[in-house]
């Protein structure tokens, strides 16, 4: 059994940010390269990607072991909003897929997946603003990008404080990073499928 990670607890989120910077940048560029703000049909492709990812992770938001660390977790799920956005743009909801066993992912990996999902709220403001050129907004077609009522920064800080506070050993710490990387890889797959 390894002792506590040499990483200070407060640096977990910073560590995740550094170690996923490249894959995030590639994703950002790949999403923009699809011309998602060209018309609503292209934006619907972005929504299909989002729907795939949020459907994967929806079970995480109901897990008791995660709720113990993030008391507001259940209210953070955005799957229903993404689904409503997709329907608003006339898109069909893809059939549910059960490839990712989000309900049985070990806790450290689940933390990595959650980091990616919750972190994506930070970029949402940028996307929401650009989507307004298509007549989309928080009331139509882009509701899942709406800032949290408490403000994006507060919402993120509350999540990251709780994430940093989870006690993990060094093996588990590495599993969090692996989980975050796997989540980004998964979003890349959804992007390719959404625009195939
Ligand atoms: C065109 C697409 C995207 C753009 C323009 C974008 C942009 C941004 C921006 C501006 C930030 C805030 C950086 C900061 O304040 O330091 C951010 C953070 C983040 N985004 Fe994205 N993003 C995009 C897509 C995504 C997607 C699809 C995901 C995952 C599903 C994602 C995951 C994250 C994460 C995890 C962070 C938090 C990084 C951290 O501060 O720890 N992003 N993004």
What labels describe this entry?
Haem_Oase-like_multi-hlx; Heme Oxygenase, Chain A; binds protoporphyrin IX containing FE; Haem_Oase-like; 0% strand
Q: Largest sheet, described in full?
A: none
Per CATH, which architecture? Up-down Bundle
Listed once per kind, the bound small molecules are: protoporphyrin IX containing FE
Spatial extent as radius of gyration? 17 Å
Mean pLDDT: 93
Number of helices: 9
- Under CATH at level 1, the class stands as Mainly Alpha
N to C succession of SSEs: HHHHHHHHH
InterPro entries: Haem_Oase-like, Haem_Oase-like_multi-hlx
Pfam families: Heme_oxygenase
Protein name: Heme oxygenase
GO molecular function: heme oxygenase (decyclizing) activity
Could you outline the blueprint of secondary structure elements for this entry?
Layout: H1 12-19, H2 21-33, H3 40-57, H4 64-67, H5 73-76, H6 79-88, H7 107-131, H8 152-165, H9 170-194
Helix pairs in contact: 1-9, 2-9, 3-6, 3-7, 3-9, 7-8, 7-9
Bound molecules: protoporphyrin IX containing FE.
Residues 13, 17, 24, 27-28, 31-32, 53, 115-116, 119-120, 122-123, 126-127, 187 line the site of protoporphyrin IX containing FE (HEM).
InterPro entries: Haem_Oase-like, Haem_Oase-like_multi-hlx
Organism: Stenotrophomonas panacihumi
GO molecular function: heme oxygenase (decyclizing) activity
């Amino acid at each position: 059994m390894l002792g506590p990670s040499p990483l200070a607890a407060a640096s977990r989120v910073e560590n995740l940010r550094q170690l996923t910077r490249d894959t995030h940048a590639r994703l950002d560029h790949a999403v923009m390269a699809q011309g998602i703000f060209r018309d609503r049909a292209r934006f619907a492709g972005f929504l299909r990607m989002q729907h795939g990812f949020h459907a994967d992770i929806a079970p995480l938001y109901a897990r008791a072991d995660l709720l113990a660390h993030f008391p507001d977790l259940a209210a953070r799920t955005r799957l229903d909003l993404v689904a409503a956005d997709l329907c608003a743009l006339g898109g069909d909801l893809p059939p549910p897929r059960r490839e990712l066993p989000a309900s049985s992912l070990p806790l450290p990996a689940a933390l990595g997946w959650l980091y990616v999902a919750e972190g994506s709220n930070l970029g949402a403001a940028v996307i929401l603003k650009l989507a307004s050129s298509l007549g989309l907004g928080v009331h139509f077609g882009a509701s899942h990008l709406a800032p949290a009522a408490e403000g994006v920064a507060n919402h993120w800080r509350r999540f990251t404080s709780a994430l940093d506070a989870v006690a993990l050993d060094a093996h588990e710490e590495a599993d969090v990073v692996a989980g975050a990387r796997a989540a980004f890889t998964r979003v890349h797959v959804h992007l390719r499928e959404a625009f195939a």
